[in-house]
């Protein structure tokens, strides 16, 4: 009787141990599977980011090469793209002027690809025009630089110890301020005055951690609340850089601050 009892207990113990081993094995397998999936996801994400970065760097290198100009032009180090989009461009160059239309496409398209003639093939991000003038003075005349504190106007605080000066006329309201050698202004309509101030505050905050290129001698920024007249122009000796055809005013600033001279 004691022998039978002992055998029964031993059998139950063995079954329990096997069950526990199976359970642990399944849990370990599930954990390994989950770890591999997570590792794969991280790998894929890192890979996508790396590919995107490399593709944009390669595109910018190709753009510089295909401009085929002797002008000492600086290009942005990166541009704000829609997630999953590819950077491409069309280029034009003459003896004293070069132009780049930066584009993004859903599929990879080489710079100056014939498909880019079709307006639906890619979306414009920004247009950069660089022009060489005969003299520094002539180049300087292209910059509508203002010292807003000397012009007067209603003062508005923009944060970070910056003061804006407002000027209204013909249904438009401008809020202007100066940072270093730059004159910056936002545009709105007189029936929507707060929007101009808000955009100016966003710009001031952004420029606390991002730097515009150093102009020689001056630069100007016009940011439009209604996304129709964003314009950034600066002088580099006899060269004048012009950024336009940018819908989002904050993206205009992002592109301008990506120029590393």
Structural commentary:
The chain contains 5 helices and 10 strands. The protein is globular, with a radius of gyration of 30 Å. The protein has helices at 2-67, 136-140, 148-151, 193-206, 249-256; strands at 86-93, 97-105, 123-132, 154-159, 162-169, 172-179, 182-189, 219-224, 231-236, 239-244. The longest helix has 66 residues, at 2-67. 37% of the residues lie in helices and 29% in strands. It starts with a helix and ends in a 5-residue tail after the last helix. It has a 10-stranded mixed beta sheet with strand order 1-2-3-10-9-8-7-6-5-4. The protein has 261 residues and is an alpha+beta fold. Strand 4 (154-159) and strand 5 (162-169) form a beta hairpin. Residues 1-53 have low confidence and may be disordered.
What's the quick description here?
This protein has 261 residues and is of the alpha+beta class. The chain has helices at residues 2-67, 136-140, 148-151, 193-206, 249-256, and strands at residues 86-93, 97-105, 123-132, 154-159, 162-169, 172-179, 182-189, 219-224, 231-236, 239-244.
Q: What key phrases describe this protein's structure?
A:
261 residues; alpha+beta; 10-stranded mixed β-sheet; 37% helix; globular; disordered N terminus
The number of distinct helices, counting runs of at least 4 residues, comes to: 5
N-to-C SSE series?
HEEEHHEEEEHEEEH
Q: What value does the Rg take, in angstroms?
A: 30 Å
Taken as a percent bin, the fraction of beta residues is 25-35%
Strand order of the largest sheet: 1-2-3-10-9-8-7-6-5-4
Sheet having the most strands = 10 strands, mixed
> What is the molecular shape?
globular
Distance between the termini: 95 Å
Structural class: alpha+beta
Indicate the mean pLDDT: 85
User: What is the count of β-strands?
Assistant: 10
Low-confidence stretches: 1-53
What share of the residues lie within helices?
25-40%
């Amino acid at each position: 009787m004691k022998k039978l009892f002992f055998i029964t207990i031993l059998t139950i113990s063995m079954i329990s141990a096997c069950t526990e081993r199976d359970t642990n094995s399944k849990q370990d397998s599930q954990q390994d599977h989950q770890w591999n999936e997570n590792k794969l996801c991280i790998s894929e994400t890192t890979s996508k980011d790396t590919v995107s970065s490399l593709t944009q760097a390669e595109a910018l290198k190709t753009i510089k090469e295909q401009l085929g100009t002797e002008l000492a032009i600086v290009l942005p180090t990166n541009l704000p793209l829609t997630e999953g989009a590819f950077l491409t461009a069309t280029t034009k160059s003459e003896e004293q002027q070069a132009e780049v239309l930066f584009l993004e496409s859903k599929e990879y398209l080489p710079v100056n690809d014939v498909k880019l003639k079709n307006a639906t093939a890619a979306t414009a991000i920004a247009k950069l025009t660089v022009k060489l003038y005969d003299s520094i003075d002539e180049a300087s005349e292209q910059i509508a630089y203002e010292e807003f504190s000397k012009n007067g106007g209603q003062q508005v605080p923009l944060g970070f110890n910056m003061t804006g000066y407002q000027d209204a006329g013909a249904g438009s309201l401008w809020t202007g301020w100066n940072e270093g050698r730059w004159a910056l202004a936002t545009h709105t309509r007189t029936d929507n005055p707060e929007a101009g101030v808000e955009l100016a505050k966003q710009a001031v905050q952004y420029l606390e951690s991002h730097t515009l290129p150093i102009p020689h001698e001056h630069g100007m920024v016009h940011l439009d609340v209604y996304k129709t007249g964003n314009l950034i122009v600066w002088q580099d000796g006899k060269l004048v850089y012009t950024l336009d055809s940018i819908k989002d005013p904050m993206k205009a600033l992002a592109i301008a601050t990506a120029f590393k001279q």
